[in-house]
């Protein structure tokens, strides 16, 4: 998809004004954190586990080349093939080539954020192949031609009324009088519509939560079982994954899985944790005939040696989104591309450029709640600040703002001048605001006073009052 | 240590301009806790606006000034978790590549405290001599809470204020939307966060909301008064220092 991150302010305003989004996020912003908190409370060693998870990912990223090659060797040993893709274009081409090699008409897909990142569906459709999303949320937004608004709950911006409307508009072959107002009815209908697609698909594409170097396996976790049908029924299974999904061992994956579901949905384990290793072997009852892995770099390897390296630990659990007061105020679409919330505010500029996504790392109050819930302790505010430093150094900050800041900083480094100016301001604003105690409007403060009053200063600066007090004390001593 | 500890007050730029009463409340509390308080005049601001705007050069220059201004005191105390957090957590990060400055930043960080945490955790204060006959609620400011672990300390001291009833605020750990320059760069988002916060505050039925950071208090007071609410807003130090009778709440008319 083409990013609209440049229009962040307009996107955010639209989100703030959308009543459906308000209701949907009101529910999500409370439900996810509450369930995570309950899961935490049931696992006393959670903090120790976070340290372990962080260490596993740090070690892997420090030896990424080694583990990737080991993984590749083990995929091949299991009968699979590995396709390396430097960027989105190479990844799309690799997938399309595999699909064409069997004359694929229908491709089923499990949920994959990398597929969103490389805009795979559009590419397949443009080449005459029908992609069918099988994760319920992804299926809903595919029907609506919308991008995901959340990395694990892609249709979280919708209420069930919108889903009912969408299904009525899309499933025209079904009885128009059928009852689909309730969630179980909607699920049943999606299941019925998707079942023949699972059976008809020539190729199944899944993402990966983890790639295991020691076995060449990939692991996906889902709550719907759609991933299993996607990867076992068609003739070809394609695993589409970015390179930082690699972990050294199954043991490491098990540790990270304990963190992942609890952080994401508050479950101890997702309903389905499915491992796949190579194609069907002789004697296997099911499984694909061909097993391909498309390993996508698309900007990750450049992050390894940068100040954004820690972002590569991300497990895509979405805890940072669920706990972010900015995300829950504006919704995921405001961020304008694939990855929203705090993790998106760090990752998006790395993938599409900070000039394109400059607002994202700035639109944070740095409350730090994201970092405090991250299962692998990514210092998200620090990484957002790193982007701000790059923007400032590269003069990507509005000149008006930059000049004002530098002028303020110049004065702040001259204490006597600073104190005189503050005292003048305190006296003036204190006098003007004495009667009401606050201002409804102030010159140059429109940003503040649009939605808030500005409390008036008390009328003197602290330093001036303190100097008075010191002088009075000295006079008393002299007497 | 011979004699009372010498404490330097990090006034903070917002307290300096908007509400010196908080500074004097801090001085009174520190003196009551047996400290000698001084106010280095070479201080202006901790530099956080520059640091969080990506202006590392100015942030470092201001940090050097603060490090010099506060050299030699036993402790440095700020009536703000945000500014204390800047010195304690972020100054060492700022000088990560400069071993000599890093050592000085670490040394200052080790002496620097948020006011209420200092009173309870360093000075062992377990009660204050104050009265306030109000139902109050308390908002945990983000930096104090998450960077400095200020959570129980203010509640413990508020529990000793005569006549005060504390009602816990649902979502007390959720940001109020101030965030320094964030509040003016993204006013609609910041305003929405403030609206959510004041709805939670109003739901407690409290007469007054307290917090430990003036930035958050300006945000909350500004949104409450714009919404026509009568709920009062104060820094927690004003209550602990028994100044509520003498000083009008934030954003209220002055005699």
What is the spatial order of strands in the main beta sheet of chain A?
1-10-7-4-2-3
Q: Shape of chain B, please?
A: globular
Largest sheet of chain B: 4 strands, parallel
> Helix count of chain A, per DSSP?
22
Strand order of the largest sheet of chain B: 2-1-3-4
Instruction: Please give the number of β-strands of chain B.
Output: 8
CATH superfamily of the largest domain in chain A: NagB/RpiA/CoA transferase-like
- Number of strand segments of chain A: 12
List the uncertain runs of chain A: none
Considering the chains and any ligands shown, give keywords for the structure.
heterodimer, A: 479 residues, alpha/beta, Rossmann fold, 2 domains, six-stranded parallel beta sheet, four-stranded mixed beta sheet, 12 strands, 51% helix, elongated, B: 255 residues, four-stranded parallel beta sheet, 13 helices, 50% helix, 11% strand
Question: What are the SSEs and their pairings?
Answer:
The complex is a heterodimer of chains A (479) and B (255).
Chain A: H1 8-16, H2 19-41, H3 46-62, H4 64-77, E1 81-85, H5 88-101, E2 106-109, H6 113-117, H7 120-126, E3 130-133, H8 136-143, H9 160-170, H10 183-200, E4 203-206, E5 210-212, E6 217-222, H11 226-232, E7 236-242, E8 246-247, H12 250-264, E9 272-276, E10 290-296, H13 300-304, H14 319-322, H15 327-330, H16 341-352, H17 369-373, H18 380-393, H19 399-412, H20 415-432, E11 438-439, H21 446-449, E12 454-455, H22 462-478
Helix pairs in contact in A: 3-12, 9-10, 16-18
Chain B: E1 6-9, H1 13-18, H2 20-32, E2 36-38, H3 48-52, H4 56-69, E3 75-78, H5 81-94, H6 99-111, E4 112-114, H7 115-122, E5 135-138, H8 142-148, H9 152-158, E6 165-166, H10 182-185, H11 187-204, E7 208-211, H12 214-226, E8 232-235, H13 236-240
Parallel strand pairs in B: 1-2, 1-3, 3-4, 5-6, 5-7, 7-8
